[in-house]
Amino acid sequence: MLYAATAGEVLTDRIFREALAQGKRIFFPRADRQRKKLYLAQVSDLTQLKPGSYGVMEPDQGPFIEAGDLGNALVCVPGVAFAKDGMRLGFGKGYYDRFLAELNDGVVSVGLAFAFQLLDRLPHDPSDQYVNFVVTEYSVHPGKPLFSKPWMS
Are 131 and 82 within 8 A, CB to CB? Predict the structure, then answer.
């Protein structure tokens, strides 16, 4: 899963082209403002993205799936800032926190950030979700353990 970057976020266009060339299925999120939830649609061409909620480029047509419907997948997550332990600071609406909370154990979440967005710590509350890794142009930081069930680690 990728996202369409807005100002200040890491661009994902190059990742999109490489994944497409490798025959990967690529999904982008669409925000449902009524349900305050992200849904995903498969995208094979960036022209399928149109301005949507909050001015973010989103898939304009489905079918749409939910976070829990992803099998083994890599989910790239944007953010305003990240902590080295995987904590993420978004724009305050909670869409990605709710989305990350619904992911299955077979999904790896990666926060994409510029080095200046990486901090030692971030304030958080109980509903905030961690990503498994934070990746900058210079470093990779492990965050939340990949498996939440002790017997799987």
Answer: yes
Cα–Cα distance list, 104 to 22, 58, 75, 100, 143 (Å)? 24, 23, 11, 9, 16
pLDDT for the residue 27: 97
Is the pTM above the cut of 0.85?
Answer: yes
- Domain parsing of the chain, residue ranges: 13-152
Q: Does domain 13-152 have CATH number 3.40.50.10420?
A: yes
Q: Burial, 68: exposed, middle or buried (Cβ in 10 Å; 0-12, 13-18, 19+)? A: exposed
Q: Quick one: pLDDT band at residue 147, thresholds 50, 70, 90?
A: low
